[in-house]
Amino acid sequence: MKLLKFTLVLSSMLILSNDLLAGGGWVHAKGRGYFKIGQWWVVADKHYTDTGETDPNVTMGTFNTSFYGEYGITDRLNGQIYFPFFSRSYHNEVVSGTTGEVNIPGRAINSIGDTDIGLKYGLVVGKPVVLSAHLWLGLPLGKSDFDPNDVNTVPLLTGDGEFNQIVGLTASTSKTVGSVNAFVSLGAEFNNRTNGFSDETRVNFELGAVIKEKLILVYKLRWLNSLQNGDSTVENGASIFSNNAEYVGYTYEVAYNITKNFGATFNYGAVYSAKLIFANPSYDVGVYFNL
Fold it and tell me: Quick one: which of 59, 116, 124 has its CA closest to 91?
């Protein structure tokens, strides 16, 4: 299941907690953690086709209100969860360009969304370059039922209906110069998908800085490649759940530690090139707590 939400999910977050970097290849110490309530959304009136060109579509939107958490079970093993406890998908009415009549009424659905639970283990810790391995399990809890042959219906989904497993490795390093702590991470993942969806490979890169232990600036880059080995017919670019979606995407993220334990984040996500996903940017705002 691809809960990458067009901004790329999921997942690899970067935070600062009492001089301890977690996210990337770092792991939280036992009893420490990071927890975030976030609001992510995308509203799109165009999408990328399977050739990488853009086509218009009826205006559609997806909104996820979610809980994200990382917690140190031991000094090397962390538990992780991404739970969109409220997910809303809608589309506007489809109006005939010649008669002005409404061909397809607008509608919306609400549910919980596809959920990810995972573990991260620190293979190399306490060194200039750290390395961790992670496993994510994607639980298909969102709504994914629709008839792809019904031309009178615009599919509305809050999940893709498949159980997937993501395994990966991430290496990270950081260097402090004055009041700036710069960091960089590089990782690779394999996403084993079910229910006819093609497997995927992913390469992730992050570059950022923590300024005076208050302001955090992050640039994230992800290359997602489909292995084209599935037989699912869910290949509609006007969605965030299409089979065989591919992209080179980026995210700009800004976070600010309001206090030692509380902070706020904002990010903007888009793509350099893509196939079979929305062509409009996504946004995310949230508040977090460092334990």
Answer: 59
